[in-house]
Amino acid sequence: MKLKKIGIAAAIALLSSGITFANQSHDTNALYVQASSYIGPQSNEDQRLVSELIKQIQTDGKLSGQLELTSRNGSVAISGRVDEVTMIYRVVEIIKRNSSVKNIDVRQLDT
Predict the structure, then answer these.
(1) So where are the chain's domains?
(2) Up-side HSE of residue 88: CA atoms within 13 Å toward CB?
(3) How confident is the prediction along the chain (111 residues), in pLDDT tens digits per residue?
């Protein structure tokens, strides 16, 4: 009987720590932006553009979600998710400010 109580207590402790860990690892107000790793070689110009756009997006304190950016000849594609629909518009506005951007594709961006 004592072994059963220890097993139940251990299971509860394990579940509790897992739930706490899960809650800590998901920060709804965080923003993760990176260059897409699924693309082929990019020109130096496109690499600089993506790096610059990532910095600009990261400095915006009103965005949260996970984004990946790619660029081909100044055409920027954004994929991932943001926490609210209005954030899609905000990301587009930030990217539009850059004069090197020719087109913006948000078809792979979701909430």
Answers:
(1) 31-109
(2) 15
(3) 554 545 555 555 544 444 433 434 445 679 998 888 766 778 999 999 999 999 999 999 999 999 999 999 999 999 999 999 999 999 999 999 999 999 999 999 999
Q: What is the CATH number of domain 31-109?
A: 3.30.1340
Q: Are strands 65-72 and 31-35 parallel, antiparallel or unpaired?
A: parallel
Provide the whole-model pTM.
0.71
